[in-house]
Amino acid sequence: VQIAQHLEGLSYFTSVSSIAVYGGGDGNSFVQEKKAVSMGADFVICTPGKMMAHIKMGYVKLDSLQYLVLDEADRMLDMGFYDDIMFIIDHLPKKRQNLLFSATMPPKIKTMAQRILHSPVEISIAMSKPPEKIVQQAYMVYDEQKIPLIQHMLQEKQYRSVLIFCSSKLSVKQLTRDLQKKGIKAGEIHSDLEQDNREEILIQYKSGRLPVLVATDILSRGIDIDNIDLVINFDVPHDGEDYVHRIGRTARAAAEGSAYTLVSVKDQRKFHSIEKLIGKDVTKILIPEHLGEQPAYTPSAGRNFGGGGAPAGGKKRYFNNRGSRHK
Fold first, then answer.
1. Of 274, 217, 283, 275, which is closest to residue 245 (Cα–Cα)?
2. Is residue 259 within 8 Å of 135, Cβ to Cβ?
3. Fewer beta carbons under 10 A from the terminal one: N or C of the chain?
């Protein structure tokens, strides 16, 4: 939707036509989509599942297609769209130009690239580092301390716009529910929501009516909001690229911003790998005293404990750096 909106603005004074094809629309949206893909449009910006559905109905005309662009290809594969994408590609003209954009190059992406690209030119851009103006800090925590810590953060200081990333839909739903119980006005975005609901939540968030948004990585790339002043990683992202994308949602357009990451015992090695990748030791800070003791940061320890709680044997290892405490 965001790409379609930008394209519409760029082409406003031209004869270029475009249509956004995605799920969750009403009957009017379906009629507009059917008309565009059957009669022709210069640009079709679509989700794989909805485009595949139109193709199966038999009225989509693809004979004149010249360019295929796969944006965020790695994310689409992570979401299980490989078969949908290949179905669409099998219905396209053999002669076309393909452009594939991906933040990472896992084996599945390489396999797909070999199948759909012909004598491709590969352009690799080094991963960008987080802007220096982002204040990065990390809390060493046990899993049961995460939600109370976030509740404390949001109640202790007033933020205009907070974006919290979770790695699972279940965590998004639970955290949102617990924040709302504490009187914190929070909304959620994840793949279980219909597109209309997602758009309504984003409108509220962008306008400032909803100060806290909890989301999966569905929002870590491409979201066009400039006034986010705090990003919280409820858990450590899967890799350094995701970390950079997540915290890059703040401190945009010359603004300042902060990024806090909650690091459980089992995620310490992963977080240490991210620190090495971005070339920066993220400041570790103390949790509020009323939340209890916190684990030490020992990513090079011989083993990580299976869960986010205390180590086996009941003996906790405590964080003893009496440095700054979040205020």
1. 217
2. yes
3. C
